[in-house]
Amino acid sequence: MPLQLYYDNLSPPSRVVRILVKEIGLDVEEKQVNLMAGDHMKPEFLAINPFHCVPTLVDDGYALWESRSIITYLVDKFAHGHSLYPTDLHKRATVNRWLYWDSGTFYPSLSAYYTPGFAGKPVKPEAAEVFKKNASALDESLKSTKYVAGDELSVADISITVTISVASAMGIDTSELKNVEKWLKQVESDFDPSTWQTLVIDSANGLGTYFKSKAFSS
Ligand SMILES: N[C@@H](CCC(=O)N[C@@H](CS)C(=O)NCC(=O)O)C(=O)O
Description:
Glutathione S-transferase Yfyf (Class Pi), Chain A, domain 2; Glutaredoxin; four-stranded mixed sheet; binds glutathione; alpha+beta
């Protein structure tokens, strides 16, 4: 039974998993769940994931959601020992620290900015400032490391690259953060060019365009 990945084109956490899948060369059957059409609330999807969110992975009947748990599972199971998710205890703990930071602090500071906008309510510039403060902390850390968790590309770089790409597509400019800029260029050169273009740039811009049409149309 092939691996199945339920995803939506515009969903940032779905992109995190799709990028990882490309990076480790996994064969996955992609199954589009159109969130705008409400596919995620249909009984057949709820039977797989009662939390009705994408991405959701199904591996031989085992269903897993939460993008960061999916990417670490996939490396552990199909590319064990890969530098994207090191097995050395301290290196792995550092990667996990950044994944938790992204999921618990960084991305939520972005969603605090965009959530009202998607509902057609005014966005709060102060929410963008909180996100930028977090991005500055990342910038400070990147002064001394090539990648977020050290000197090798890891799953944390994939996760945080997607977060930053969404922010910039929504108009939060972090280009003054020179270490972040340099790191993004490095990640871009590490990714396959078509993965970078489609799963980082084009998908983020698609979401950014939709966001701007909801948040700034009067
Ligand atoms: N923390 C989760 C977030 C998943 C999530 O909220 N996905 C959104 C799309 S970006 C979704 O499926 N929303 C529909 C819903 O939750 O009902 C992850 O990283 O996978």
